[in-house]
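Before a colleague's protein record goes any further, I have to sign it off. Alongside the sequence sits a line of tokens, each denoting a local backbone shape. I want your independent view on whether this chain really folds as the tokens say. Where you disagree with what is written, explain briefly why. This is what I was given:
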Amino acid sequence: MLRAGVGQSSNPSTERAAEEAATQAMDRAGIDRADLVLVFFSVDHVSSAEKFTAALQRITRTDAIVGSSGVGVLTIDGEIEGRAGLAVMVMASDDAQIRPFLHQPLRGRDADIGAGLGRDILSGASGESLVVAFTDPYNAEPRALFRGIEESAGFVPLVGAGSSENGSQGKTFQLYGQTMATNALAGFILSGAFTSRIGITQGCQPVSEAMTITKAQGNLILEIDHRPAYETFARVVKGPLLENLERALAFIFVGLPADTRTNSVASGDYLVRNIVGLDPRAGILAVAEEIFEGERMLFTLRDGPRAREDLRQMLARQAESLGGKSPALGLYFNCCSRGSSLYGMDGIDTAYIRQSLGEFPLIGLFGSFELGPLERKNHLLAYTSVLALITDSRDSVRAT
């Protein structure tokens, strides 16, 4: 049986925040010793990391602590953005195996680290496996990490986020035990008799039909449906946004296929990528991704009401999949461009989750990007949220 509890604190005192959050988590889990402590924290607490890790160890009676810095943190009780915040989840299990890890340095080593994680997965407990990871966005190559795991162990779902911070540090932080690291990958492998239901919701929704890239070079889109790419962009982006292109690029993005085999951008299975430049005279768009001729695409809009509706639909699918069961725990990795910056107020995502799925142990992080599976392949995601729900079951892992 997998038992979990969560707690959070906005106390600016690092030691007090850790004590408050950890005590609440242990009480809610109904355990006297944790097998793993997962902690997300704002950078306000980094300078006193020794104090909060010592408090966590004392209260949870374990040094198996992993975590990440975030520009915001959350639990089922709500979201903490723009101020000191610390969220804790404790886990204990009689039959599942929980193995924390830290890999440092990270830069240039993602593929090798992924291969090692794959070997660790194969050597672990029987049943399902899920990798939960927090990586330094300034030094990470997530695709190489995914490739390393897949080549070593086949497809194993991975959820997580790029660690984040409020701009005051110029670096992010990954935690393992009492080690506060940078340029690192931290997380844990969960293996055993459980079911993981992974839902992904898009913060950017389509504002065009699916189209075909008919001419491309590197990351440049030259033609869409045999017409200059900028001409197609201008046809979609009308009005005030077209008059201020810098502002337009904060709201309009490209959606590309998650699965190159199907080359489809339907049903939300698309990867949102930034338009990083455009040339109206040459008719060119530059995208933060390598582009291929013949690839399907669409334009998307970052929009609060549309994002809320997509979240509602994803949660409805999750609730149906649960069939009345309550999750043992949940992990929610939210893009830092969501929350109050998208909706105009905080607490929207967690309110929707509580309304749809009820009260259960949920912890989350506002990350610089998200990691999750689509079409049985792990992806680097942007402007999304990834929700992983864990139940005690032997059903297969599936993404919704």
Observations:
- Residues 304-322 form the longest helix (19 residues).
- The first strand starts at residue 2 and ends at 9.
- The mean pLDDT is 94.
- Residues 160 and 371 are 5 Å apart (CA to CA).
